[in-house]
């Protein structure tokens, strides 16, 4: 089975106020950490979809074996980046893993766990599960790609897996959820840099 990783990193970071792909975490750009983990996983190929500030980001991110696409319609939302990425994959790819470019805690071993879970479960999809709620990264076999291609606006794969939970194998994630699943705001960034911080609820993009 041939699997491609699709790293979505085209957003304009409006809530952050600066390109979040370049925020430093442990001295490394955020997107660089995500791409490195994807490259270190068992994915057969890795594709990164950029959009806003694409030239600036490309000049500062170590891509390794990953290839880059630029979504000219990135301002319309995440759905357009999914379409650009999926359309670029050749016919030999059997499944895709949609990875958000702002999830630095998703490492290569977790990606590999998701791949193994989807294959062993016999279900067409697999995703992380936080307190029973499904989150990316998401493994989707080709038969479900049509659902992704039909999305519009700032909607991503969460919409597909939450609409059809019976098709999704769940990989539970335990631990401290006082830091965010993904990094959207300055508050999220502070919690990633200081995971011992308390007093804020976990941030989950709808």
Q: Sheet bearing the most strands, described?
A: 7 strands, mixed
Query: What is the helix tally?
Result: 7
Q: Helix/strand-derived class?
A: alpha/beta
- What is the averaged pLDDT score? 83
- Overall 3D form: globular
What's the total number of strands?
Answer: 9
| Cross-sheet strand order for the largest sheet | 5-4-1-6-8-7-9
Element-by-element helix/strand order: EEEHEHEHEHEEHHEH
In terms of per-residue confidence, which ranges show pLDDT below 50 for 5 or more consecutive residues? Answer: 198-206
Helix share bin: 25-40%
Strand content: 15-25%
The protein's oligomeric status is single chain
Q: What integer value in Å does the Rg equal?
A: 16 Å
- What is the rounded distance between the termini? 31 Å
Question: What this model shows, in words?
Answer:
- The chain is of the alpha/beta class and 206 residues long.
- The protein has helices spanning 30-40, 54-60, 78-88, 108-121, 145-149, 157-163, 186-193, and strands at residues 3-9, 24-25, 28-29, 45-50, 67-70, 95-100, 125-130, 133-141, 168-172.
- It has 7 helices and 9 strands.
- The longest helix has 14 residues, at 108-121.
Give me a quick take on this structure.
By secondary structure, the chain is of the alpha/beta class. The protein has helices at residues 30-40, 54-60, 78-88, 108-121, 145-149, 157-163, 186-193; strands at residues 3-9, 24-25, 28-29, 45-50, 67-70, 95-100, 125-130, 133-141, 168-172.
